[in-house]
Amino acid sequence: MRGLAIVVMIIDHILSALESTGVSNYLVEYSRLSITRLSMPLFMIASGIVWGLYGSRLKRWAQVLALAIALNAMMRLFWPDFNFPEILMVWALLAIAWRLIVRFPIITMIVGYTQTTYWMITWQGFQPGELAIFLGAGVLISKAPLDWLWRERRTAKLLEPLAFVGRYPLSIYGGHLTLLAIIVAIANDRLISVFA
Predict the structure, then answer these.
(1) What 3-state class would DSSP assign to 25?
(2) Contact at 8 Å (CB) between 101 and 134?
(3) Residue 167, exposed/middle/buried by CB under 10 A (0-12, 13-18, 19+)?
(4) Which residues have C-beta within 8 Å of that of residue 180, sequence separation ≥ 6?
(5) Helix, coil or strand: residue 41
(6) How far apart are alpha carbons 178 and 176 in whole angstroms?
(7) Which pLDDT tens digit goes with each residue over 112-161?
(8) How many helices (DSSP H) and strands (DSSP E) are in the chain?
(9) Are 181 and 74 in contact (CB under 8 A)?
(10) How many CB atoms lie within 10 A of CB 35?
């Protein structure tokens, strides 16, 4: 699931970069408003499944937080119209409460919905409640007896290439966003102005 989320997210970010450099058409716009919107829910569900099955490790959380801080700083300089705060920062904040999310996934989803509906934070990025809803859903999925689905031979063959991509989520995430931010900065003459 994480591999599919990465592929869909990269497509979404490429389309966003095209928009930020002035390339805008119906295909770009409708793709970003439809199929690529699945990347965040897929990522958060996958994360919730991992938390539900294995918990969270402090070392991994620290790696995500460090990358989130670096990406947010870089994005503000090179690609300021990209979501701020970037989703990893919101995830890192929610991950502080991972034990509560795993213990009370339905309450987490209700609080997430309530925050998103009534207590929106005025920022560009995803609302914490949006992520919380899908993290809670992932925890619930982790409790479901779905082992048979992953053991099915056809499913395993289909998921094999995506599993490879899903093994390196932080490297792929940070790498592609850095590359796209530099391309957007060059296309919008921001790279020179940042270092001038």
Answers:
(1) coil
(2) no
(3) exposed
(4) 13, 14, 16, 17, 79
(5) helix
(6) 5
(7) 999 999 999 988 778 999 999 999 999 999 988 876 555 656 666 666 77
(8) 12, 0
(9) yes
(10) 12
